[in-house]
């Protein structure tokens, strides 16, 4: 019960009690940490429209082509999946933490690409934890590639391109709410539909 004015007609799993439809709409993913399986949240997601790209997007100078995404599909899936897993494992992570982590990661890889080792660390602890996880994933991926192909085939520029693509996806799918997890939800749905589309081994 938030406003204590209107009749609480909905049962809110976020506040573990009743909520009126107006508070539900206004406070959803703002002050209320909505569980992703809340029926009202799921309904509202269907009406959320992709955000228009801001006039100035970060890393605008980096081109991410269809061809690049096809070539780097394995790295992209691996990175996105690890980001998604980390988002669920680290309590309290919301889209804006992912945004901060991706900002720091792209900065780090930009400097690495230019030959400098200068790691950017976000102040936000959740974003920092996400960043660490992604870096670990990239390292694992590189080691695996090195073992199977016998050469160092994953360039910093490839990692950077993948990170910039994820950054743009986040900008597009985030709903702008303080505790919004529309992007996390999008990633989850994407990998779920991918798993369903892959026939099980006989
Ligand atoms: Zn209310």
Q: How large a portion of the residues is in β-strands, by DSSP E?
A: under 5%
Q: Major sheet: order of its strands?
A: 1-2
Oligomer: single chain
Shape category: elongated
State the secondary-structure class: mainly alpha
Give every kind of bound small molecule, once each: zinc ion
Q: What is the number of strand segments?
A: 2
Radius of gyration over all CA atoms, rounded: 19 Å
Distance, first to last CA: 51 Å
Mean pLDDT across the residues is 91
Major sheet size, sense and barrel closure = 2 strands, antiparallel
Count the DSSP helices.
8
Please trace the helix and strand order, writing H or E for each element: EEHHHHHHHH
* Helicity, as a percent range: 55-70%
Question: What do you see in this structure?
Answer:
By secondary structure, the chain is mostly helical. The chain has helices at residues 21-27, 39-47, 66-71, 73-89, 95-113, 125-149, 156-173, 182-197; strands at residues 10-12, 17-19. It has a two-stranded antiparallel ribbon with strand order 1-2. It is elongated. It binds zinc ion. Residues 2-3, 6, 19-20, 22-23 line the site of zinc ion.
Note the main attributes of this structure:
two-stranded antiparallel sheet; binds zinc ion; 8 helices; 202 residues; mainly alpha; elongated
Provide the fold topology.
Layout: E1 10-12, E2 17-19, H1 21-27, H2 39-47, H3 66-71, H4 73-89, H5 95-113, H6 125-149, H7 156-173, H8 182-197
Helix pairs in contact: 4-6, 4-7, 4-8, 5-6, 5-7
The protein binds zinc ion (ZN).
């Amino acid at each position: 019960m938030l406003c204590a004015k209107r009749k609480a007609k909905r049962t809110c799993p976020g506040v573990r009690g009743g909520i009126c439809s107006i508070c539900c709409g206004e406070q959803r993913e703002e002050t209320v940490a909505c569980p992703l399986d809340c029926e009202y949240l799921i309904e509202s997601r269907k009406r959320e429209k992709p955000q228009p790209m801001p006039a100035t997007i970060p890393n605008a100078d980096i081109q991410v082509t269809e061809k690049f995404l096809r070539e780097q599909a394995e790295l992209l899936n691996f990175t996105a999946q690890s980001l998604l897993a980390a988002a669920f494992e680290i309590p309290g992570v919301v889209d804006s933490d992912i945004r901060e982590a991706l900002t720091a990661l792209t900065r780090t890889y930009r400097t690495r690409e230019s030959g400098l080792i200068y790691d950017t660390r976000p102040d936000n602890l959740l974003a920092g934890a996400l960043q660490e996880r992604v870096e670990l994933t990239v390292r694992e991926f590189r080691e695996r590639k090195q073992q199977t192909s016998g050469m160092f085939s994953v360039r910093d520029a490839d990692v950077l391109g993948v990170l910039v693509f994820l950054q743009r996806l986040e900008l597009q799918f985030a709903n702008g709410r303080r505790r919004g997890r529309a992007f996390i939800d999008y990633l989850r749905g994407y990998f779920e539909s991918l798993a369903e589309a892959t026939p099980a081994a006989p």
